Amino acid sequence: MMIEPIDVHSVFAEYFKGAEPLAWAVSRTLAEGSICLNLDTFKNSIEKNDEFWQANPFREKAGTFDEIINNDQFITHKENELIQ
Predict the structure, then answer these.
(1) What would the pLDDT profile of 24-59 be if each residue is shown by its tens digit?
(2) pTM attached to this predicted model
């Protein structure tokens, strides 16, 4: 019997109802070694529909960039998004 792998970034994101696309991106960035998500880089990723954004399983239900980052579950500090 094969055990299906778990996408830990999706599991993490599901704790942040209404902010899943952003939470997934923050989790993925944390796994890559950064403690915050640079908003300029994230916005460019969305606009270019690049590999990072394509990998986000919540992108289909995401709104605009401004709608994605407009929530009270994360803190914006100097163009970076942090977990509150």
Answers:
(1) 999 999 999 988 899 999 999 999 999 999 999 999
(2) 0.86
One-letter amino acid for residue 33 of the chain:
G
Counting Cβ atoms within 10 Å, is residue 60 exposed (0-12), middle (13-18) or buried (19+)?
exposed
Task: List Cβ neighbours of 64 (8 Å cut-off, separation of 6 or more).
Answer: none
Whole-number Å distance between alpha carbons of 48 and 53? 8
Q: How many angstroms separate the CA atoms of 39 and 69, rounded?
A: 9
Q: Where are the beta strands (DSSP E) in the chain?
A: 37-38, 74-77, 80-83
CA distances from 78 to 28, 54, 60 (A): 20, 26, 28
